[in-house]
């Protein structure tokens, strides 16, 4: 580890000079304090010996490998570097602290009212509390040898003064430290001072670089900005790094086999960001946000749903309204020509019910467009299921009406009592109750709910209705499909009945279109996501409903307006 730090810099508290202290220190002996066990024990630890003649702390047991004190040891023989006090940095701090307190007490006892509320004689007799002397300590200014001024700021802190130390670890030699400069916050002209750039590293370190060893010293670069060089009288700045700090949007990545201050800068991945230089890691954006292009911050994701403002949403909504208006017009035509043979031929009441249900089918698609809400999520599939069931069951009832009416004309047939609209409406009611029951169970046990899909796409939040139970959703589709298949089979069997206004052929084609649309819907729906999934269902509803409207009612409107001669009792007979 120390070889990796070879040539590195550090800051140490400022070294100061205490007059005659070094001579006093090295001449110190525990014999001068014969009854002080703490001094004796500390002395023995420092010089590395033990003696029974010197008092020690209770319980102190000498190591068998420790030599016996001779009494002639001095601190000059001790390695004081392990205590960090070989240059008296901490000692000098204690020295100046004592002087600061002494000057504060002197100022306190020398002060006149109102700074001191007592006279001088009374001050000397009083016990001064720490809080009373605090402001005097803050305001002292004094000098120590050799003419070094000391003071405190308004917060009671001395100005920051540090020595800049260069560390040198030479294999097989002692640790060498060199003071290469200093930092002095009290000097407003030169805060950061380097003695000499040319000798910044020293010849010994340059020699160490040439030594053949297994370590690689850290390389340093100097930038010419904020470092004061006395020789050239200009400002420069040392940069003690292997590489530039990582920029915003990047993180540090450790390199194997190199010092910890050497690292790679790796860009933050998508969905993460860092807004500080030299970030140790990137922060993940919340689910509703994504990282910006430079990975320096998080921005809200776009919210996606089938909106009326989108081209697709507006087109589908316009188509639904046009088909609704068209169906309403057909309904008006049937009401106007209510008593004509072509309207009366195939149960005009069922035709009106079918037209009304088709209008509701077109309108229910509007529940699928726009920003989803919990109420819309509950209503749209229920409305679609029940209304579509009424439409398909009406077609089935019309087909069965044709079959019953044809067979009732045979001699001795018992089907005559089933001819009429009552049986048809009972059939529609029963079929509708079936789909209503499925919807009720669905809404009770696993209803649809509003969901925000945050992670299906990188930069988009998909706001959608989760159908809750997919099983119930496809049960509704399957139920409607079963009714459509029965209608197709019944219409196919009745397509050759001899009747000018027989709707069986038209119903056959309408059910063929209907079944084709919904068979195609299933794979398309399962392979889509987000607003496209909603658009697929809307398209299926509109196209299948339009198929019913066109195949069943377009031929009737053609006869009413373009072939009115066929819409007479004489033509029917």
From TrEMBL:
<protein>
    <submittedName>
        <fullName>Vomeronasal type-2 receptor 26</fullName>
    </submittedName>
</protein>
<dbReference type="Pfam" id="PF00003">
    <property type="entry name" value="7tm_3"/>
</dbReference>
<keyword id="KW-0297">G-protein coupled receptor</keyword>
<feature type="transmembrane region" description="Helical">
    <location>
        <begin position="382"/>
        <end position="406"/>
    </location>
</feature>
<feature type="transmembrane region" description="Helical">
    <location>
        <begin position="350"/>
        <end position="370"/>
    </location>
</feature>
<dbReference type="Pfam" id="PF01094">
    <property type="entry name" value="ANF_receptor"/>
</dbReference>
<dbReference type="InterPro" id="IPR028082">
    <property type="entry name" value="Peripla_BP_I"/>
</dbReference>
<dbReference type="InterPro" id="IPR017979">
    <property type="entry name" value="GPCR_3_CS"/>
</dbReference>
<dbReference type="InterPro" id="IPR038550">
    <property type="entry name" value="GPCR_3_9-Cys_sf"/>
</dbReference>
<feature type="transmembrane region" description="Helical">
    <location>
        <begin position="538"/>
        <end position="561"/>
    </location>
</feature>
<keyword id="KW-0325">Glycoprotein</keyword>
<keyword id="KW-0732">Signal</keyword>
<feature type="transmembrane region" description="Helical">
    <location>
        <begin position="312"/>
        <end position="338"/>
    </location>
</feature>
<dbReference type="InterPro" id="IPR000337">
    <property type="entry name" value="GPCR_3"/>
</dbReference>
<feature type="transmembrane region" description="Helical">
    <location>
        <begin position="471"/>
        <end position="494"/>
    </location>
</feature>
<feature type="domain" description="G-protein coupled receptors family 3 profile">
    <location>
        <begin position="306"/>
        <end position="556"/>
    </location>
</feature>
<keyword id="KW-0472">Membrane</keyword>
<dbReference type="InterPro" id="IPR000068">
    <property type="entry name" value="GPCR_3_Ca_sens_rcpt-rel"/>
</dbReference>
<dbReference type="InterPro" id="IPR017978">
    <property type="entry name" value="GPCR_3_C"/>
</dbReference>
<dbReference type="Pfam" id="PF07562">
    <property type="entry name" value="NCD3G"/>
</dbReference>
<keyword id="KW-0675">Receptor</keyword>
<keyword id="KW-1003">Cell membrane</keyword>
<feature type="transmembrane region" description="Helical">
    <location>
        <begin position="418"/>
        <end position="445"/>
    </location>
</feature>
<feature type="transmembrane region" description="Helical">
    <location>
        <begin position="506"/>
        <end position="526"/>
    </location>
</feature>
<keyword id="KW-0812">Transmembrane</keyword>
<feature type="domain" description="GPCR family 3 nine cysteines">
    <location>
        <begin position="238"/>
        <end position="290"/>
    </location>
</feature>
<dbReference type="InterPro" id="IPR011500">
    <property type="entry name" value="GPCR_3_9-Cys_dom"/>
</dbReference>
<feature type="domain" description="Receptor ligand binding region">
    <location>
        <begin position="25"/>
        <end position="167"/>
    </location>
</feature>
<keyword id="KW-1133">Transmembrane helix</keyword>
<dbReference type="GO" id="GO:0004930">
    <property type="term" value="F:G protein-coupled receptor activity"/>
</dbReference>
<dbReference type="GO" id="GO:0005886">
    <property type="term" value="C:plasma membrane"/>
</dbReference>
<keyword id="KW-0807">Transducer</keyword>
<dbReference type="InterPro" id="IPR001828">
    <property type="entry name" value="ANF_lig-bd_rcpt"/>
</dbReference>
């Amino acid at each position: 580890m120390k070889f990796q730090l070879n040539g590195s810099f550090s800051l140490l508290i400022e070294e100061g000079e205490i007059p005659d202290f070094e001579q006093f220190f090295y001449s110190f002996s525990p014999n001068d304090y014969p009854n002080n066990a703490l001094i004796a024990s500390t002395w023995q630890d420092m010089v590395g010996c033990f003696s029974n003649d010197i008092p020690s702390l209770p319980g102190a047991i000498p190591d068998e490998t420790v030599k016996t004190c001779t009494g002639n040891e001095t601190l000059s023989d001790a390695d004081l570097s392990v205590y960090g006090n070989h240059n008296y940095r901490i000692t000098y701090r204690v020295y100046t602290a004592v002087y600061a307190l002494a000057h504060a007490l002197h100022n306190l006892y020398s002060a006149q009212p109102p700074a001191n509320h007592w006279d001088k004689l009374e001050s000397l007799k009083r016990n001064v509390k720490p809080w009373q002397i605090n402001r005097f300590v803050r305001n002292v200014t004094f000098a120590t040898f050799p003419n070094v001024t000391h003071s405190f700021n308004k917060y009671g802190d001395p100005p920051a003064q540090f020595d800049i130390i260069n560390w040198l670890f030479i294999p097989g030699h002692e640790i060498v430290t060199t003071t290469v400069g200093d930092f002095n916050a009290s000097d407003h002209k030169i805060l950061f001072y380097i003695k000499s750039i040319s000798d910044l590293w020293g010849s010994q370190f340059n020699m160490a670089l040439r030594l053949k060893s297994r370590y690689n010293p850290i390389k340093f670069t100097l930038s010419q900005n904020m470092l004061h060089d006395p020789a050239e009288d200009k400002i420069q700045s040392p940069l003690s790094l292997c590489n530039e700090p990582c920029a915003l949007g990047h993180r540090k990545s450790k390199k194997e086999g190199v010092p910890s201050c050497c690292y790679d800068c790796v860009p933050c991945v998508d969905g993460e960001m860092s807004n500080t230089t030299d970030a140790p890691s990137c922060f993940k954006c919340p689910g509703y946000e994504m990282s910006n292009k430079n990975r320096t911050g998080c921005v809200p994701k776009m919210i996606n749903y089938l909106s009326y403002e989108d081209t697709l949403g507006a087109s589908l909504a316009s188509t639904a309204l046009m088909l609704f208006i068209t169906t309403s017009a057909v309904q008006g035509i049937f009401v106007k020509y209510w008593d004509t043979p072509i309207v009366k031929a195939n149960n005009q009441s069922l035709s009106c019910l079918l037209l009304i249900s088709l209008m509701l089918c077109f309108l229910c698609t509007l529940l699928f467009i726009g920003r989803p809400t919990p109420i819309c999520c509950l209503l749209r599939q229920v409305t679609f299921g029940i209304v579509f069931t009424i439409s398909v069951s009406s077609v089935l009832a019309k087909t069965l009406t044709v079959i019953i009416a044809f067979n009732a004309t045979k001699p001795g047939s018992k089907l005559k009592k089933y001819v009429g609209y009552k049986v048809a409406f009972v059939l529609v009611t029963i079929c509708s109750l079936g789909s209503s029951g499925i919807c009720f169970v669905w809404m009770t046990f696993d209803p649809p709910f509003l969901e925000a899909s945050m992670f299906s796409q990188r930069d988009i939040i998909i706001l959608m209705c989760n159908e809750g139970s997919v099983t119930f959703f496809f049960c509704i589709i399957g139920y409607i499909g079963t009714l459509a298949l029965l209608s197709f089979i019944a219409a196919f069997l009745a397509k050759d009945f001899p009747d000018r206004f027989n709707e069986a052929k038209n119903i056959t084609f309408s059910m063929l279109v209907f079944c084709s649309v919904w068979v195609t819907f299933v794979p398309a729906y399962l392979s889509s996501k987000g607003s496209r999934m909603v658009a697929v269902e809307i398209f299926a509803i509109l196209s299948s409903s339009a198929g019913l409207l066109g195949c069943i009612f377009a031929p009737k409107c053609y006869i009413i307006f373009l072939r009115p001669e066929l819409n007479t009792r004489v033509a029917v007979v």
